[in-house]
Write a structure and sequence with these properties.
This protein is an alpha+beta fold. It contains six helices and three strands. Helix 1 packs antiparallel against helix 2 and helix 3 crosses helix 4.
Length: 257
């Protein structure tokens, strides 16, 4: 970013003051809330999130510094919580995406699992195809173990999310198995946690652009690392979908107090 496009120090200071004001308004709304779903609290929360996000952007543009806050995007924010005040049951909805970065490694791991099964017959063999190998591995290992060992299975982690939703009472056994994800009510989400490389990639991309601009001045100015071999880890590549389990990260507004 050029100096002409940068915000002024006064603009950054004004954004910081706006965050302070929004904090005071949010606290005041919480202190005089009329109930768990007080719209004034929800509105104050959104104003605080917007002010903090604006300050974070200006701070980075001007000083290349960031805040410690994770600000949920407007499109990702949840509606006010409308579930039971005292939930007697919870449903945890989890999605984790993977990239099949190394299919041959995945097939090899599935073949090892299959070979170790002394009771398997030829009709049971499924490690020879990619879908079969995926089904075999996810049937053999817990989702948490696959998450911690994903590189061993030729996978690369993508985005993940976890939603905790409140229920009026525990579901009957087998009640929702035919369509487990069809009846999710965002207004019953107690809390949500998201993980995405986009949170880091946006900053990394800006830093990479700055490095490239410096290198444009000529070979004498270029980064010497660009003249040699690029660092490359064969265990880190591409992207797929479909699985379970999660890692923490971002907490959305929407939980009951």
């Amino acid at each position: 970013m050029s100096d002409a496009a940068q915000p002024t120090a006064a603009e950054v200071r004004a954004a910081a003051e706006a965050v302070k004001t929004a904090l005071d308004r949010h606290l005041a709304a919480v202190e005089r809330r009329s109930g768990e779903d007080d719209p004034a609290v929800y509105e104050a929360f959104n104003e605080l999130a917007a002010a903090a996000e604006a300050y974070d952007e200006l701070l980075y543009d001007r000083y290349d510094e960031v805040t410690p806050f994770e600000i949920p995007g407007a499109d990702d924010s949840l509606p006010p919580y409308q579930g039971p005040a005292e939930p007697t049951a919870l449903s945890v909805l989890i999605r984790r995406d993977y990239a099949v970065a190394e299919p041959q490694r995945l097939l090899a791991q599935a073949a090892r699992v299959e070979a170790a099964d002394e009771d398997a017959t030829d009709d049971d063999r499924q490690a020879g195809t990619l879908p079969g190998a995926i089904g075999l591995l996810f049937g053999e290992f817990e989702p948490d173990e696959i998450a911690s060992r994903h590189k061993e299975f030729g996978l690369e982690e993508g985005d993940s999310t976890l939603w905790v939703t409140a229920q009026d009472e525990p579901a009957e056994a087998g009640e929702w198995l035919e369509s487990p994800f069809d009846q999710t009510d965002p207004q019953r989400v107690v809390c949500r946690f998201d993980v995405s490389a986009v949170f880091d990639d946006e900053q990394d991309g800006l830093e990479d652009l700055d490095d490239l601009e410096d290198a444009d001045d000529g070979p004498d100015q270029a980064d010497p690392d660009l003249d040699g071999e690029l660092d490359y880890d064969p265990d880190e590549v591409v992207s797929l979908d479909d699985v379970d389990d999660v890692e923490v990260v971002e907490r959305e507004r929407g939980e009951p107090a």
